[in-house]
Design brief:
The complex is a heterodimer of chains A (212) and B (406). Chain A has 212 residues and is mainly β. Chain A is built from no helices and 21 strands. Chain A has strands at residues 2-5, 8-12, 23-26, 31-34, 36-43, 48-57, 61-63, 68-72, 75-79, 86-91, 98-104, 107-112, 117-121, 128-133, 138-144, 147-154, 157-163, 170-175, 185-187, 192-196, 203-207. Chain A has a 5-stranded mixed β-sheet, with no helix packed on it. In chain A, strands 2-21-20-19 form a 4-stranded antiparallel β-sheet, with no helix packed on it. Chain A is globular and about 45 Å long. By secondary structure, chain B is of the alpha+beta class. Chain B contains 18 helices and 11 strands. In chain B, strands 2-1-9-3-4-5 form a 6-stranded mixed β-sheet, with helices on both faces. The N and C termini of chain B lie close together (8 Å). The chains are: A mainly beta (212), B alpha+beta (406).
Chain lengths: 212, 406
């Protein structure tokens, strides 16, 4: 396993009226982040929130190319980002103990916080297809280039780690500095991760290591 | 934090207690237990709240020191509001240190205030003041700033610095309004009102009148010889002779001070000091001995002169002699004074606060209960005492914001 310090490239926020960031995703241009009763679109080029959708948003956020998925209490809502309408709802696999959310290859991946698990679910029905065990609380999930990454935040320690999607084995860890927790994780498809910063109200960009 | 915990914490912060409970009612993981504990505390079910917070604190893992410490602080606040003053202060201090170490400034300041409020309640003013000095009030959010100023006012009032107390209460009022917490505003108003109620009685040259706290302060600074029956001391400006552990001597000096500048007949002194109805020779001999002791004790301040029929007080420097008495004088007045705060007290907490033995306090409470002046509920160790009418429970539960996680 490789260990290194996470390199924070950029910090966005805190934003007015935002008490905490509970989930993040990226639609190719904007970073969307969940802040309790809103999902907000952040322009990473200038750090400004360009628009917000009023919808319950208590944990992970994901984007499938057309729609936003947002965890609210013990449900996952599919939202049309253009209108803000909730188009469909499925049960969340952790019954409300859900934390991170990611979209990859036609399925949703849901982190279950204290359950220390990642579930792969059917985005139409919410049916659990597969479960990977982690040894840390899961606070964010993302896929990039066939790599499965997830955020952990246990009390005072937080990191972003790459795991083997088959076995759950930890392959690489990026340790966050003290006081910077990860709540919500999304790759930009290239060399950045966007990390929700929990009650700091910030979104952080962390460099994704390239190697091998 | 996970989805439902976030939703419940938001509901709690917005005052929607039932909404918060609904979301975590069936969960037994530590963050859910902590949230349920806080909601229960705010609903007034303090016993259940403590049990839940205790379980939550124990459930958090070794990497979750902050979440655990926040639970401990919430538990300590409930103990303080319940007047369980024997609650381990060390546990609270350790939690405060953990919060400080992890940069949770607000909650560590909150913990510090709880420590100070406990010290204030049990009369350890010097320690309270020292602990308070470690805090920087302007850096605190409004609710904590109000709590801070209330403690400053509490210390100042007990030290008879009324101007300092009024200034602190004015700042507390501003901060409480800024915070928008009604319970805090009410507490500030209540405390301010006590400054406008008689704090003592002045007995001088055969007359008697009520004194406000500021008047007491002025009196003590006036240079008069004050026989202070609130604290059982004799003082003139900064010179204080304590007779707190010598009740017979105090009874004699008080009788002499009440009669000043006249003298007091031996028979009257015997009645006051020894409750003796008929004076015989042995009583007279005892009185001589006690007056001798009193002379020695008062030496820097006053002389006790023999007169034809008894004794008279003659101040050395002061031009006036007065008696400062509690506003209401009855047996067990101190116990009643503590119960007047409207909280429910255990007898052991009262003993701690009064610096008396548990047995003494127990006897006082039973006597007061027989006279219908106090009432108790619960049995055994859980028994609590209040002065009727039973007031609403509790005043300011300034529990730290939505608890768990980062």
């Amino acid at each position: 396993m490789k260990r290194s310090a996470a390199e924070i490239i950029e910090e966005y926020g805190p934003f007015p009226g935002v008490e905490a960031v509970h989930g993040v995703t990226f639609d190719g241009r904007q970073v969307w982040f969940a802040s309790g009763e809103k999902v907000n679109a952040l322009d990473p080029a200038n750090g400004k929130v360009v628009r917000s959708i009023e919808v319950a948003a208590h944990a992970g956020t994901a984007f499938d190319g057309r729609h936003l998925f947002q965890i609210a209490e013990d449900r996952i809502h599919r939202i049309d980002p253009a209108t803000g309408r909730v188009l469909a709802t499925i049960p969340a696999p952790g019954n409300g103990g859900d934390s991170g959310l990611a979209w990859a290859e036609g399925t949703l991946w849901v982190g279950q916080h204290r359950g220390r698990k990642i579930h792969q679910i059917d985005p139409e029905t919410g049916k659990i297809l597969r479960t990977i065990e982690s040894n840390r609380v899961v606070t964010g999930v993302t896929w990039v280039d066939g790599e499965l990454w997830h955020g952990t935040w246990e009390g005072d320690e937080s990191d972003v780690r790459r795991i083997d999607p088959q076995t759950g084995e930890v392959l690489e860890r990026l340790e966050m500095p003290a006081g910077a927790g990860v709540s919500g994780l999304e790759s930009d498809g290239a060399d950045r991760f966007f990390c929700g910063g929990g009650r700091s109200g910030k979104v952080r960009a962390v460099r994704r290591p390239r190697g091998e | 934090m996970d989805s439902l915990i976030n939703a419940a914490a938001r509901a709690l912060a917005a005052g929607d207690l039932l909404g918060a409970l609904k979301r975590v009612a069936l969960r037994d993981d530590p963050p859910a237990l902590a949230l349920r504990g806080i909601a229960m505390a705010q609903l007034g079910d303090l016993a259940r709240a403590r049990a839940l917070l205790h379980r939550a604190a124990r459930g958090f893992g070794p990497r979750e020191a902050v979440a655990r410490a926040r639970c401990v602080v919430a538990e300590a606040e409930i103990a303080l509001v319940s007047r369980e003053l024997g609650w381990p202060a060390r546990t609270l201090a350790a939690a405060r240190a953990a919060l400080e170490a992890h940069g949770d400034r607000v909650n560590s300041a909150h913990a510090r205030h709880l420590e100070v409020r406990r010290l204030l309640l049990i009369g350890r003013l010097d320690e309270a003041e020292r602990a308070l000095a470690a805090l920087e009030p302007m850096a605190l959010p409004p609710a904590l700033r109000a709590a801070h100023e209330l403690v400053v006012a509490g210390i100042a009032m007990r030290r008879l610095h009324t101007r300092t107390a009024r200034a602190a209460l004015a700042r507390a009022g501003t901060a409480a309004r800024e915070a928008g917490v009604p319970a805090l505003m009410a507490e500030v108003e209540g405390t301010t009102a006590t400054l406008d109620r008689p704090a003592a009685r002045l007995i001088a040259r055969g007359t008697e009148r009520a004194l406000l706290l500021d008047e007491v302060e002025t009196l003590l600074a006036s240079g008069a010889l004050v026989v202070d029956a609130c604290r059982n001391v004799v003082r003139e400006a900064d010179t204080v002779v304590s007779l707190a552990t010598r009740p017979v001597l105090f009874a004699i000096v008080r009788a002499l001070a009440e009669a000043w500048p006249a003298d007091v007949p031996r028979s009257a002194l015997l009645a006051r000091a020894f409750r003796a109805r008929h004076a015989d020779d042995s009583h007279r001999a005892r009185l001589r001995v006690e007056v001798g002791r009193l002379r020695a004790a008062l030496r820097p301040l006053a002389e006790v002169n023999a007169t034809e029929r008894g004794f008279a007080l003659a101040p050395v420097g002061a031009r006036e002699v007065v008696v400062l008495a509690p506003p209401v004088e009855e047996k067990h007045a101190a116990v009643l004074a503590f119960l007047a705060d409207g909280e429910s007290w255990s007898s052991s907490a009262l003993a701690l606060a009064l610096g008396a033995s548990a047995r003494t306090v127990q006897r006082a409470l039973e006597a007061l209960a027989e006279a219908g002046k106090v009432q108790s509920f619960g049995r055994g160790r859980a028994r609590r005492w209040m002065s009727p009418p039973v007031p609403g429970f509790p005043t300011t539960l300034l529990l730290p914001g939505p608890l768990p996680g980062g």
